Structures are given as structure tokens and as C-alpha cells.
Amino acid sequence: MENYKKLYQRWQNHERIELTDDEIKEKFGSYLEFGTAGLRGKMTAGTNAMNVYTVRHATQGFADYIFNNGGRERGVAIAYDSRRNSKLFATKAAAVMTANGIKVFLFDDICPTPMLSFAVREFGCIAGINITASHNPKEYNGYKAYWEDGAQLSLEQVDAVSEYIRNTDIFDGVKTNINDSLVTMIDSSFDEKYLAQVKAQSVTQIESDLKVVYTPLHGTGGRVIPKLLNNIIVVPEQMIPDGEFPTAAFPNPEYIDVYAPGIRLAESINGEIIIANDPDADRMGAMIRNHDGGFMLLTGNQTGALLLDYIITALDKLPPEPYAIKTIVTSEIITKICELNGVKLHNVLTGFKFIAEVIKKESGNFLLGFEESYGYMRGTYVRDKDGIVAAMLFCEMAAYYKSRGMTMANALDALYEKYGRYIEETENLYYEDIDGVTKMKAIMDRLRLNPPKSLGGEDVVVIRDYLSGEVMDLRTGLVTSTELASSNVLYYQTAENNVVVIRPSGTEPKIKIYYLLHEPAEVERFKAEMEKAISC
Questions:
Q1: What separation in angstroms does the CA of 132 have from each of 46, 81, 129, 246, 511?
Q2: H-type helices in 167-252, by residue range?
Q3: Which residues of the chain have pLDDT under 70?
């Protein structure tokens, strides 16, 4: 790589910035990595950040890949969310694509991520780009890259595009000139095509007086949810698209703080459930009334389990060869649900592109795919998580149970009574300093060298190393294959069939630890032993 001080000096020819030596090293010591979810970083100057230069740079590499795969005529769909600079970055990406002779289908307003995935398929595009940082704070933005099936790029494609980017000079190697003749604008009439596909995933249609409070958290869901759901009461201050996220500093439906305005509204109107999308509407969170009348936030695992059981229960008859998909860090209650209902279950690595790969190959009937981090998908019209269809399904599920005299709290109790009670918790260890990547690598290396012998007071009996692709049964010494793509993930199963999974995040400077337990296991005991294993 070019010396970072020289790179900083070259940057000055395009944009004057004054930085200290430490800041120069931090901002120019590396390039923002084009990973499994494209780009994501803080919006600031430098090669290790989101700005017009890094967006153009990545787009040139992507354009070269598209061109060399014969996709110039098929074109690229480009969308953006409500964040600061999202529209700017989208237009810069469009300029690079058209300068390379590649057609562009450009949304004329903010757009949910699942609608972009649908557009790629609907227009027969070779690829797609969505400018969004999903649920990250306002300082961040990102660049999600999609291929012709509407799914995010495969690992092999990411490597290939990354190679094109590395071989392109960030300034002199980028073509940028908007060619209007190669641009087709996508207006709001496209919403109805997408929503028709969403509505087709409905399981039951029950007239109900259910009171639903909805918030898009200042994002793209506000564009389409009111067209889809007639009985919702929106949170007015959060309906305004605003990249500053004034009422939700961390606009993630996993965090209870973002629901405060919704709770106030629901209490004033006697609302029964609260639905939230993140800013690009690929995730959905839900709050329900507990038995005491207050609001409780469901986990992603609880919501996914409820939805899958609802789909299976409410369908008059399961279709032939039904199947569901979950990630390896998602609750084991799904395994139980599928076993007891004759549904084939696929376990995949974290990331909806792996769910999409199963759909591409599987010949059966797809019921639901989801991961614990509030991502759900039903139907095959998109190949990424879809917070819009999830919101619709959750509302109709609540109406279904209400018609049977049950609250959602009753439905959750019934779920656990039927399948057993499961406990899930995710722990995030942040490493945001300049040596963060090195520290995370050291932790994963230590665990591979000295794996924990016990967790939660229970012997570890199986270790799955998804990086090496090996499954080690410590009781028999047998080594088999994970049969999944290589990924930096370690999976520990105890003698009591409790599971702990650890992996570095692909989009944020943190290590994630997933505790997938069932009663009477105690999370704190597992955490204590995992902390000891990490620090050894």
C-alpha cells in the first residue's frame, strides 16, 4: 500500500484537511475494507472512512467486476436511506457506473433495503447497491452490494471485487461522469409492485380492532408501511426521515430506548403492540403487553419462534416439503419447532446471503428464514431480510391470537409450554481503538490454541471451528466437516446441549458472543467461564 503520509498529501490536492500525525495514521493507514456487507464506517475524510472518494473507489472496482462479467447492458439498481450523505453517495455511485457504460436504475427517494433487493430481480439487473448503515448511529454510513439474485455478494465475489478495488487508484483510477441517457429513475409507483409481493406472504386475514403503534425510527419504513397496514397509529415525531436520528441516538430496534415515544403514544391510546423498523427497514422489532399490562421488548429469537410457530399453526395444511432456515447463532427452539412439525431445518452461517443460497438450491416450500438480530424473511421475491413483511406478519399474528382470546404474552407462554423454555443472550465486546482488529484476532487465536474445557460448569463436548471447517467431537476424537463456507466463528456445545458461539462482527469493531441455552442453565455462569477463556 502507498505510504499513508503520501496518501494524505495526495488527498490535500482534492480536499484540504488539517490532521495530527496520529489522525493521519488512523485515517490513511488503511483502506475501508470491502467485506461481506460491502462498506461501513464513519463519515469523515480519509481512506479508512465513508466519503465520496471511498464510495467512488469501491464503485469503480464493482463496475470493473460487473463489466468483466458481461453485465453492462443489464444494469445496476441503486438506492439509499435517510442518512446524511446517502443520496449524495448514491448519485456518486451512479456517476461511476454510467461513466463505465453501465446502465443504472436509480430510486428517486429513500428506499427500504428489501425493496432494493426486489428491484434487482424485477428489473433483471446484474447487481444492486444500497447506501445505508442500517441500524448504526448517525456518524456512520455504508454501502451494501448485491448480485443478480437479489442477495448480497458471496464470499468469492467479495474477494474478487476487493481485488479490483485494490488494483484501482482511489483518485486517478476512477471514472466519474453521470450519463443521463443510461439512468432510469424509479419513482413511488414501484412501491405497489413490491407491496403486492409482501401481501402475498400473508397467512391469515382477520378483521381486527387490534391497536398497533408503528415507528420507522426516522427511516425508510415510513415510505411503505402506511400503504401496507391500515390499522396502524404512527409515532409522528419518528415518521420524519432524518439522518440525525433526533429521538433515537442508536436507531436499532433491538434497544428499548428507541421505543420511548412509541410507548408514550401506546399508553395514551391503549395500544396493544408496538412495531419498529430500523432506518433501512430490513429489521423489525416488536413490543407487546406483558401480563402486568406494561410493555416488554421481544428478542429476535422470541419473535422468530413465534412467527414460525404461527405460520405452521395457522396454515390449514403445510405445503409439501416445507423448510425453514436459521443461522448457527439463532435459538435452538427453532430446531425443536421443526422437529415436532415435520419441517426441514437448514442451519447456515450468520448473514442473509447464506439464507439466500439455501433458497436458490432448495426445491421444497420455504416457510421462514431468520436470524437472532431482528432479521426475517418470508417468500422468495427478495433475498435479504425484510422488515416490511415481518411487520405485516407480526400484526396479523397478533390479530390471529386476539381472535382466539389470547394476548401475545399468552401466545409466548403457549410457545414455551409446547416446545420448552429457551434462554438466549448476546454479549458485545467492543474494540474501537486503532489496534482493535489486532486485539480481536489475538482473542480468536488464543481460543483456537487453548479452547475452554468447560462452560457454565458443563463439559464442552463438541467444538466447531468454521474457519478450518472442522467439527471436533471431544468424547470420541472424531473430526468431521462443518459443510459450510469458511468463517471466523467458534462454536462450543456442552454435554447438556447448551451452546456458546463467538465471532468478530463483519461490520463493527466488536466481538459477539452468543449464549444459546435452555433451562435450567444460568447465563452468568457461562459468561464467567467464557470471560476467563478469552483472557487466558
A1: 19, 6, 9, 18, 22
A2: 190-199, 221-228, 236-239
A3: 1-2, 507
Q: Alpha-carbon Rg of the chain, whole angstroms?
A: 23
- Residue type present at position 530: M
Beta carbons within 8 Å of 61's beta carbon, 6+ residues apart: 34, 161, 162, 163, 164, 165, 166, 167, 168
Helix or strand holding residue 98 (H, E): helix 86-99
Placement of cell 407487546 in the chain:
288
Query: How do strand 365-371 and strand 322-327 relate by DSSP bridges?
Result: parallel
How is residue 115 written as a grid cell?
425493496
Q: How far apart are CA 215 and CA 262, in angstroms?
A: 7
Nearest to 356 by CA among 365, 369, 345: 369
CA 244 to chain centre: 21
Q: Residues with Cβ < 8 Å from 404, sequence gap 6 or more?
A: none
Q: Note the maximum CA span of the chain.
A: 70
Residues 13-35 as b or e (16 or more Cβ within 10 Å = b): eeeeeeeeeeebbbbbbebbbbe
Angle, helices 221-228/387-403, rounded to nearest 10 degrees: 30
281: cell is: 427497514
Give yes or no for a contact between 424 and 301, defined as CB atoms under 8 angstroms apart: yes
- Phi (first) and psi of residue 402, to 5 degrees: -60, -40
Is 535 assigned a catalytic role?
Answer: no
Task: Report whether 451 contacts 443 (CB < 8 A).
Answer: no
Query: Residue 269: its pLDDT value, please?
Result: 97
Q: How many helices (H) and strands (E) does the chain have?
A: 17, 23
Which residue reads 484476532 in cell numbers?
A: 441
- Of 82, 86, 134, 162, the active-site residue reads 134
Task: Name every residue whose Cβ is closer than 8 Å to that of residue 426 and which is 6 or more positions away in sequence.
Answer: 372, 373, 512, 513, 514, 515
> How many whole angstroms separate alpha carbon 136 and alpha carbon 252?
7
The answer to whether residues 165 and 34 touch, using CB atoms and an 8 Å cutoff, is yes
Contact 177, 98 (CB under 8 A): yes
Residues in the chain, total:
536
Residue 325 is placed in which grid cell?
432456515
